Amino acid sequence: MLRAHLVEDIRSAEVGAAELFGWDGLMQRAANALADRLGELVPANETVLFLIGPGNNGGDGLFAAARLCGPARAVQVCLLDPERAHTAGLAAALGAGAELVEEPADQRWVVDALFGIGSTPGLKGRAANFAAWAEETRAHVISVDVPSGIGVDTGTVPGAAFAARHTVTFGTRKLGLLAGPASLRSGDVDLVDIGLADYLGQAAIESLEFADGSLFAQRLRPETTDHKYTRGVLGVLAGSMQYPGAAHLCVAGALSGPTSMVRFLGERGLADRVIDRNPEVVAEAGQVQAFVVGSGGPDEDGPVNQALAAHVPLVIDAAGLSHLPARFELDALLTPHAGELAGMLDCARAEVEADPVTHAQAAARRWNATVLLKGPRTIIASPDGRLRVNLSGTAWLATAGAGDVLAGFAGSLLAAGLDAFDAGSLAALLHGVAAERVNPGGPITASGVARALPLTLADFLQGAEA
From the CB of residue 25, how many other CB atoms can be counted at a distance below 10 Å? Predict the structure, then answer.
């Protein structure tokens, strides 16, 4: 599982580590690791331009530049503010043979060492000009710790910021490297150990990995004594005669998960069509351990109220999100996309997309429910403050019906005994991995994702590689 921390916690950890290594020792550890990674990334015949800001981030860059200098490597340094450059670092870089330049020009490989985790989001002045130059010239940017200009603790990008292809980050990941629009500017993130691990507290955000199957295997694998009622029964209230496909896809997602029975309780005519396609589905009311409701359903409160009356955990998707109770008194997972969450919170879609973490957390508190906010980096926010982000998936997953499959699969995990936070987190992870597997690098369908989910779940529980 990946973990990221907030700036305040990282600063506290740095104080603890500095007592062991010294402040200069911490900087040297970071600079050496950065130089090693740059040596691997940048071709030997390419000039490397270091854009250097004030403070420790610039110091890390300057000491790394000094180490990178050599007979076969041209290194240049451009200072944002010469009067505030790290004195010892600048002396080391120039002494090792780095060339001081006034402005960037035609360099292809650029190290962004302008601002670290303590800076205000959004670049201004000359720093913003540097970021614009890098974007216009399509320079290969490698950021030091974080891309300069991003909201490190929020994942936002409120102004000019660098878009890195690689980020070398120190000690721990940062929230902005995993979540929100900022994470899409971080490129491939390399975490290097500089000795903070023993001093870090609770993570601000987590991300499940495909290697985490052992965390769930005992809860999801059936025992030899289990039968269809002990493995979990899921009730489905999805689809309509207007959107019959949503019923089929939600049921397909549900059948792809660990639950042992699906009860489809939608319209009778639709139920007959669902059973024709999936004869294992039961179209009669009865005991269920969880409900999924709303996918492709009618815009009315009946289905949600029917599910609530069962007093079991539930997933609410799509049309159901317009008919929520004031607050939930049971375990609930809400699965909006940005537009739906904007409607729930009475704000603009652009506001949600600009700051998905804050809006997902606000909705989780407002309804006392776990919120799975679908997007490029899906956010899972619990009302108790826990936060996860999903990193699996492909842009091809933005396809009709994918959300219906996700809702059904999450409902299956909920019926099998996971709580809403784990069910949402695991559903997002495996839904994304299944999508990656269906047709690597090409278009996919929601039905294809559903078909890939059973084997994906099996591999996950058995510890196979994605």
Answer: 14
